[in-house]
Design goal:
about 50% helix, alpha/beta, 8-stranded parallel barrel, TIM Barrel, about 300 residues, about 15% strand
């Protein structure tokens, strides 16, 4: 009930109030903000990935602007010698406009990153773009780029076959639950179903020696991953935990202090309002969690 009330009244909520929770999860408006946050996390022996806020662009000019911003992220990583990499959203670079146009933009960034020894992660968005995103990844790998990774979502029913189909590439995969509100025919909807599939997919990745980004704040899944790491005698070169900026910071710090590799997702940009409200609308279950987090430090 609380979730739906928040969603329905969201357009009436002043931006200043939305910013109360948004600022906890976003580095700031500028690239400099993301650099400073990354340096602070490095001080805790952590790593980050930097993302320029913005997705589902509607013009090629906007996509080119987003590409330029992502290019500046690569420059900043090199200039400041940061323990981070660039994450990109394909639709921010034009995937919803023209597949080849988007590929040119993405390949430009991946090529620039490769020349300076950097890595790029292609985020997975909602279901209309899943196949196109996987095909873009394959196209990059077939063109000789090995400095690029991809993301899969455990709530998508197709993820097991998608990962299996990429095994020959030995991909670096970030595994998350998924945030978009997908239809039950293509996505698991119950929390236990999503958790069980996450465990199944993570085991598939580890069984095949894939570098695994364990992206979750779910304590059950964190403990499952810790058991897998111990039972398989994995080294810190085999995996890393990943968390969003501002979420479960106490648990994040516990894992870092225990010596586990952990990367924090650090978004920045002036599209914080759109980013925040889209996330709430796409997944109403987040609304209550975020509302309560305003009054919590955990």
């Amino acid at each position: 009930m609380l979730n739906q009330i928040i969603i329905k009244t969201l357009p009436l909520i002043p931006k200043s109030f939305v910013h109360i929770f948004a600022k906890k999860y976003i580095a700031g408006d500028s690239l400099e903000d993301a650099v400073e946050v990354t340096k602070k996390i490095q001080g805790l022996n952590g790593m980050t990935t930097i993302d320029v806020l913005g997705e589902f662009v509607t013009t090629k000019n906007r996509a080119l602007h987003e590409m330029e911003m992502s290019s500046k992220v690569l420059d900043a990583i090199k200039d400041h010698n940061l323990r981070t990499y660039l994450s990109i959203k394909p639709t921010s670079l034009g995937l919803g406009l023209d597949v080849d146009f988007a590929y040119d933009n993405i390949s430009y960034l991946v090529d620039k990153a490769k020349k300076s020894g950097q890595f790029v992660r292609i985020d997975m968005e909602n279901s209309p773009f899943t196949t196109q995103t996987i095909n873009t990844y394959k196209r990059l790998r077939n063109s000789g780029y090995d400095n690029v990774g991809i993301v899969f979502q455990s709530y998508m029913r197709r993820s097991e076959s998608d990962i299996t189909g990429l095994l020959d590439y030995k991909p670096s995969i970030r595994l998350c639950k998924g945030i978009y509100n997908e239809h039950k025919d293509i996505a698991f909807k119950q929390p236990d179903e999503i958790r069980n599939n996450y465990k199944k997919l993570l085991a598939l990745m580890l069984n095949n020696g894939l570098y695994s980004g364990i992206a979750t704040h779910d304590e059950e899944l964190i403990r499952f991953a810790l058991d897998e790491i111990k039972d398989r005698n994995l080294t810190n070169k085999d995996y890393e935990f990943q968390m969003l900026l501002g979420v479960r910071t106490h648990r994040r710090d516990e894992l870092l202090k225990a010596g586990y590799p952990l990367r924090v997702y650090v978004p920045f940009g002036k599209d914080w309002y759109g980013y925040s409200t889209r996330r709430l609308k796409e997944n109403p279950q987040m609304a209550g969690h975020i509302f309560r987090s305003i009054f919590s430090n955990n």
